[in-house]
Amino acid sequence: MAKKNTVTTSERPITVEDHKELNKKNNEKKRTAVNDALQFPQGDRFDTDLAEILEGDSEERGETVAIALVDCDEFFHINTDFGVEEGDRILIETGRYIREKAPKDSTVYRIGGDEFGIIFKGTMEREDIFLFLNDLKNDYDVKTPDGVKQTITIGMATAFVDASRCAELVRKADGALFRAKRSGRNKVAMAREEKMIPKTSHYTQDQLQRLTELSKREGVGEAILLREALDMLFKKYDI
Prior knowledge:
By secondary structure, the chain is of the alpha+beta class. 52% of the residues lie in helices and 14% in strands. It has 9 helices and 5 strands; from the N terminus they run αααβααββαβαβαα. It has helices at 16-38, 43-54, 58-61, 76-82, 84-101, 126-139, 166-182, 205-218, 222-236; strands at residues 64-72, 106-112, 115-122, 152-158, 188-190. Strand 4 (152-158), helix 7 (166-182) and strand 5 form a beta-alpha-beta unit. Helix 1 (16-38) packs parallel to helix 5 (84-101) and helix 4 (76-82) packs across helix 5. The radius of gyration is 20 Å and the shape is globular. 26% of the residues are buried. Residues 1-12 have low confidence and may be disordered.
C-alpha cells in the first residue's frame, strides 16, 4: 500500500487550505500522468464538440448522434489500497481498451477522474450502440494487482430523441449512469423520459422573472435551464 503524503512545517500548524492545496497538486499530477499516456481530448472538448454536432445538420442528414459516459466502478478503493500509480495504470488500461473497441464513427474523451466519454455520430442505430456498450462492459477485463476483475458502468443518451441541447443531453446520460450505479453497477442504462415535479414555491418572484427573461433570450425552456443549474450545483458539491 502506498504511503500517505504528509505536509510538515515548523512555522505554523497545517490548515484546511494546506490540505486542499496538496490534494489539488496530487490530482493535477494524476491527471497529467493519465492524460499524457492516453492523449485523449479532454472534458471541455467533449462539451464543445457535442454542442457543435448538435448545432449542425446531423438531424437533417438522418445521422445517429449519441453519447455514453463510462465510469470505473468503486475506483476510490484502488488509490486507497494500491496507491495512485496503480490507479493511473487502471485508468490508462481502461482508456486504451475503450479506444481499441470504439467504432470508427465515434470519438473517446477523458472527462476527468475515472470517467470517460464517447460521442457517436454516423450510421449506427441507437439499438446497435446500446448493444456495443453492453459488449464493452461485458468484455472489460482490467484487474487490480490482487487479481480482482474490475467493472464499468455506462449511461447513454441519444440526441434528438432524449434531448437536443448539449447540457440536457449530458444530463440525461449522467442520470442514466446514476441509475445504473444505484441499481448495482456493472450495467448499461439508457436515458428515459422524466416526470417533472413543480418546485415554484422554492424560488423568489425576482428569480422566476429573471428566469423567464433568460428563457426568452436563449430560446430554451425554463425547466431545462433549471435542470442545468441544479446539475451545476451537484457538481459543485460532488453529489
